[in-house]
Amino acid sequence: MMRYPSLADLLDRKRADLGRGPLSLVLAEDDVALNETLAHQQSCGFRDVVLLAPDSVTIAPGLDDRIHVVTHDVFAEGALVQAVNATIARLPGTWLHYCHNAEFLVFPFMETRRVREMLTFHAEERREAMLTTVVDLYAGDLDRNPDGVALDDAWLDRKGYYALARKDAASDWQPRDRQLDFFGGLRWRFEEHIPYAKRRIDRISLFRARPGLKLLPDFTLNDEEMNTYSCRWHHNLTAAVCSFRTAKALRTNPGSRHAIPTFRWPNSVRFDWTSQQLMDLGLMEPGQWF
Questions:
Q1: How many domains does the chain have?
Q2: What is the pTM assigned to this prediction?
């Protein structure tokens, strides 16, 4: 397995190859569920996966086929956003996805379709980006899994999600067309432990790079049309990022760890790792794709 000293070095050497896409960037602060995350990205159909990680993080043998490991300062302010923007600048026209370790992209009908098929259909509908909802996953038994992460005992909330109109400060706080701020999951139920700016659960984490495009710190793009959940004439595809990240943070932070004996509540359901479950719960939209 080759490790690159920087993202710039990887892009210098492999730019033409990586540009064929779709490409996934995974930022790993630790090795929690890392191998499973990388394997999932490959099973989704991403042609290449770039792992941004400290030198101390390694991956299992057999997972390095088309996985490019890059030494990266993952604890720097805005580390993921900066990496995504550097990639956008070097790979115009490429479909990109980004996430952290212990996060898993789920899209409609993924059991029988590949991500390239989905993005081809999405592009044919003249869409250059896709809304993804971050669905908090958590271990059902925190005594057995004290870090809140358990792929074989994953749960999620079936209720408690809502959306508010996204206001535009530049237009006297009028609602932005076809844009919403989404809330719910652990960030809603335990909001006293979550900074206000981190409570939203929407990201634009699938999009086609182009010159001048930038990912902003709130995981929206600097093109307002690319932040919309659908076009003007009908509903479009959306996807989900199923994430243990919030559960892990709440169980790692001393201020919240001892205040939360369990994440389960009456509206918890076991996650069956299927796209149909998320569509049935209204957490992603198949649009016109069948």
A1: 2
A2: 0.95
